[in-house]
Amino acid sequence: MATLIDNLSEAAKARAARHPEKQKRPDSPIQRKPDWIRVRAPVGEVFSETKKLVKDNGLVTVCEEAGCPNIGECWSQKHATFMILGDTCTRACSFCNVKTGMPAPVDHDEARRIGEAVVTMGLEHVVITSVDRDDLDDGGAQHFEDVINAIRNASPKTTIEILTPDFLRKAGALEQVVDARADVFNHNLETVPRLYLSIRPGARYYHSLRLLERVKERDPSQFTKSGIMVGLGETKEEVMQVMDDMRSAGIDFLTIGQYLQPTRKHAPVDRFVTPEEFRAYETIARAKGFLMVSATPLTRSSYHAGDDFKRLRAAREAELAKA
């Protein structure tokens, strides 16, 4: 019993170190996952190689930091989503497992190491995301540009997808990142407007929506992408309204996945959405005009990103051929 208590105490200390702002929140029991959302433990030689490459190059991945359930599948195929600008976020979203606090100074050599990792892994498509850096005057825009340029120089044929923060109150930051010309510009709305105060308190729904619209206004050739989680207490009607808002902003690609509660201190799962409901959401979204839709319980922003990018590009070409 003493050993169990000690282990629980160590686990609680680890949670507190990652999320000090959540420690006064009441515990929410973590629900047992249904059969359709369980995944295999990560194993295999290629998985181990990917893990070693990430570690040896001093890189950070959102796969690890956010506790992504697809890490075993993706890393076994040498797919990893690099998280730049450190491992510590200045926001305190109630759904996210990335560490919260004051980040370290920007590592200006990170761009070079990511470029080298892309070459070593032979990536045809790479996804770059970041923590929020409200402490920086540009929100990290210059670093995004540096990373994009480093990948272009190291591996010119690799297509690049970025998943950015909202650059709230960072004048000129969005324009700088758009002008770096990634192939896909992703920024997640995460949830419906009604739930922002409890789920994403540091962000603003209409600012995020407008950010994606501004990407299209500045560079119509860039694909735009956004995603939401379901199972947080939203209604079907609210999800469909978000779809309409996204289409009004010209968003090309929609992802919808099941929210999974990282710890007892995070927002609780309201319910597990069934695979049938996800298929219904996909049908509705395609009818609304998205070029690409991924809606499954395990869908995440960068899940199957390379294959999905090829489908996205083919869908645009087919649409242009009709014009």
From TrEMBL:
Pfam families per UniProt: LIAS_N, Radical_SAM
Question: What metabolic or biological pathway is this protein involved in?
Answer: Protein modification; protein lipoylation via endogenous pathway; protein N(6)-(lipoyl)lysine from octanoyl-[acyl-carrier-protein]: step 2/2
Q: Provide the species name.
A: Hyphobacterium vulgare
Which residues are recorded as binding [4Fe-4S] cluster 2?
C89, C93, C96
Q: Where is this region: Disordered?
A: 1-33
Q: Which residues does the record give as [4Fe-4S] cluster 1 binding sites?
A: C63, C68, C74, S302
InterPro entries from the UniProt entry: Aldolase_TIM, Elp3/MiaA/NifB-like_rSAM, LIAS_N, Lipoyl_synth, rSAM, rSAM_sf
GO terms for MF? lipoate synthase activity
The molecule here is called Lipoyl synthase
